[in-house]
Design goal:
alpha+beta; two-stranded antiparallel sheet; 2 domains; Phosphorylase Kinase, domain 1
C-alpha cells in the first residue's frame, strides 16, 4: 500500500506518505531561499537535540521528514477550552522551554538574536506529551519578545476570540514568562498589542473581499 495524503500548507506542498509499515512527511518548498533556510535550521536543531522532526532524506527543494503525527498544539488548546480544562501548566512550561532552548542555540550559532516569526499554534506538534516544532523557513534575525508577543496574540484570537478561558490561559502564560526572567515583559506586551492590530487588519481585509 502506498498513499500520498495532502496536508494543509499555505506556502508549500506537504504530503504524508503512507507505506506498508511506515509513514513520513514529504515537504517541497516554494523556492531555493526557503529550502536552504528550512534545511539549515533543521540540521542545526537536530544536531543540538531540540525536539524537531528528524531529516530522513533531501532532494532538490524537497525534504523528507519524520512523521510526528497529527496532534497540533492548536488542537490540544481547543480541546482544553472546549472541556473548560485549566490543566495547561505543563503545555505552557513545555512550550517556553522549547523556545528558551531555540533562542539560545540560534543566537550561539548565528551570533545574533533570532526569531521563528510564524507563531501559529499549528506549527507545534504534541507527541507523547512533548512539544515539537515544525516549519522553519521564516526564521530570521529579531528580538525573541516579538515571537512571544505573537504567541499571546494568537492564543487570544483563535475562534472564539478573547473568551474568559483564553484570558486565563494568557494570564498563566505571562506568569510563567515572568518567572523565567529571560524576556523583557514591556516589549512582550507591546509586541502582543501590535500583533493583535495586525490580526484585526488581516481579518478585515478578508471580510472585505
Amino acid at each position: 500500500m502506498y498513499q500520498e495524503i495532502a496536508l494543509t500548507s499555505k506556502k508549500n506542498k506537504v504530503y504524508r506518505i503512507v507505506e506498508v509499515d511506515n509513514t513520513y512527511i514529504l515537504k517541497t518548498l516554494r523556492d531555493t531561499k526557503s529550502y536552504d533556510k528550512e534545511l539549515e535550521v533543521l540540521k542545526l536543531l537536530n544536531d543540538k537535540g531540540l525536539l524537531v522532526p528528524k531529516i530522513l532524506n533531501v532532494n532538490k527543494y524537497s525534504i523528507t521528514l519524520e512523521d510526528l503525527g497529527e496532534v497540533t498544539l492548536l488542537s490540544i488548546y481547543e480541546k482544553l477550552e472546549n472541556n473548560n480544562d485549566k490543566n495547561y501548566q505543563h503545555i505552557i512550561e513545555s512550550l517556553l522551554s522549547w523556545l528558551d532552548n531555540f533562542y539560545k542555540v540560534a543566537e550561539d550559532y548565528y551570533r545574533r538574536e533570532c526569531v521563528l516569526s510564524d507563531m501559529n499554534f499549528r506549527n507545534f506538534i504534541v507527541k507523547n506529551n512533548r512539544i515539537y516544532r515544525i516549519d522553519f523557513e521564516e526564521v530570521g534575525f529579531g528580538k525573541k519578545e516579538a515571537d512571544v508577543g505573537k504567541l499571546l496574540a494568537f492564543g487570544l484570537t483563535y475562534n472564539p476570540e478573547h473568551t474568559e478561558w483564553k484570558k486565563q490561559f494568557e494570564k498563566a502564560f505571562v506568569v510563567e514568562i515572568q518567572k523565567r526572567g529571560l524576556y523583557d515583559m514591556e516589549s512582550v506586551i507591546a509586541e502582543k498589542n501590535l500583533e493583535l492590530e495586525r490580526i484585526k487588519e488581516r481579518r478585515k481585509k478578508i471580510e472585505n473581499h
